[in-house]
Design brief:
about 425 residues; mainly beta; 4 helices; globular
């Protein structure tokens, strides 16, 4: 990650990415100028969040779109704000509710930190069927569950997490405090069994865990681990050498952005400095690399003194569409079964679109940028998370909605870290991709 609370690994990988991107940009400036990606402008933006003490260490990261089937115009965007907890916004990007992240368990323990969020529709609880917002609490290495009731007094989100919900990856509190904990998140319902699941990645590791969501007593929700899969951490290059993305010693290339195609149970997982993987959502079978980041195969040496990576010569084994980090994976469904897999190319502030159909091998279909609408409504830079919904959402978004995180809100507030979410008419995106 780049914008929010950078780690040493992040800083190093960003330097490596920027260096190689600048070189590539210089070499291909004429081609880029001749064939720029189309721009789409947002219609609205949420109030800015500040990742500092004065701002409650709130940092916009990942959104999800909940459609109110009874009244689509009263749908919600539910989004994570890291230590700032969870936010709910209406379709005008106005705050509806703020939910605090849980406090630290002890004075030396990490506080709650909500990383990613996704939705589960119609989960059968002991208190009745419910729509849920599910979030990964990186600080406590757990999942948290919030029941959605648009008309509830006090706000639409109610915490229904079972207090006994176990850590996802860690054996004890000491291991939790190392913060190699629950990170990326995607939900999935198995059509054959009707069971609901969450897929959770691990920070600074390549692991992805499959968790079955289980109704508990009193309308609470917990989970059990079904299995875990480790994606590769090093890669054999065509010249016979082995490559691993440059990082702080001990850190492996992590996964964050994930999404499951509900039509066929396919998981797409973005390994930030590597590329986009396609695999079965039940974590069986062999993962396939759909596309690579441009920096794939570029050697780097980590300097502990500067906490940066010094890149070597690019051997030319990387992809052509996405620049590390690959983030914010989301799906655009179409009525005929077609559609797109969208990925945030964080390193060059673009979005790449791939064909959703497996028969077409997820081929690249085009890209776009979210550009300023003028005045104070800027575009999206260094996008961490994105969510798309191709369904009517009242008169404001009759063609659906795309929500993207903006890692650098402008004009900002001096040197304070400023992030928010941009709301984009999905019809504009579809037109840009079809042109």
């Amino acid at each position: 990650m780049t914008r929010h609370c950078p780690t040493r690994r992040t800083i190093g990988s960003v330097v490596l990415a920027l260096t190689t991107v600048l070189a590539a940009t210089s070499a291909s400036a004429t081609a880029v100028a001749a064939d720029p990606l189309p721009g789409v402008t947002p219609r609205a933006e949420t109030p800015v969040l500040h990742d500092d003490d004065a701002g409650g260490n709130a940092d916009a990261d990942d959104p999800a779109i909940w459609r109110n089937t009874a009244d689509p115009a009263r749908s919600l965007v539910i989004a994570t704000a890291k230590e700032g907890g969870l936010r709910a916004y209406d379709l005008d990007a106005r705050p509806v509710q703020s939910v605090a992240a849980p406090p630290a368990d002890g004075p030396d323990d990490a506080p709650g930190r909500f990383n990613n969020v996704d939705l589960v529709r119609g989960l059968k609880l002991s208190s009745g069927s419910a729509d849920l917002a599910v979030t990964s609490d990186r600080g406590h290495d757990r999942l948290r569950f919030y029941r959605i009731d648009r008309d509830r007094s006090g706000g639409p989100l109610t915490d229904v997490t079972d207090p006994a919900a176990p850590p996802v990856f860690s054996a004890d509190q000491a291991e939790i405090n190392e913060q190699r904990t629950a990170y990326g998140l995607a939900t999935w319902q198995d059509k054959a069994s009707g069971r609901s699941y969450a897929l959770v990645s691990r920070r600074e590791r390549t692991s992805v865990a499959l968790l079955e969501l289980i109704p508990g007593q009193g309308g609470k929700v917990t989970y059990r681990k079904v299995r875990t899969l480790d994606l590769p951490s090093s890669f054999r290059l065509p010249n016979g050498t082995s490559w691993r993305p440059c990082a702080e010693p001990g850190e492996l290339p992590q996964v964050e952005g994930m999404v499951v195609d509900p039509s066929n149970g396919t998981l797409y997982a973005g390994q930030e400095d590597v590329g986009i993987w396609r695999l079965r959502a039940d974590l069986t079978g062999k993962p396939e690399l759909v596309d690579k980041v441009r920096e794939y195969g570029v050697p780097g040496v980590y300097d502990e003194e500067t906490e940066e990576c010094t890149p070597g010569a690019d051997p030319g084994y990387g992809g052509k569409r996405i620049t590390a980090d690959v983030e914010g994976l989301t799906l655009v469904d179409e009525a005929d079964g077609d559609g797109y897999l969208l990925a945030s190319s964080q390193g060059d502030n673009t979005f790449a679109a791939y064909d959703r159909e497996l028969g077409d091998q997820n081929e690249y279909e085009g890209g776009f940028r979210v550009t300023p609408a003028g005045g104070a409504l800027d575009g999206s830079e260094e996008c961490d998370g994105a969510a798309a919904l191709n369904e009517p959402l009242g008169p404001e978004y009759p063609h659906g909605l795309l929500v993207v995180q903006d890692g650098h809100d402008a004009p900002g507030d001096g040197d304070r870290p400023s992030t928010d979410f941009k709301f984009v008419d999905l019809g504009k995106v579809m037109k840009a991709l079809d042109d």
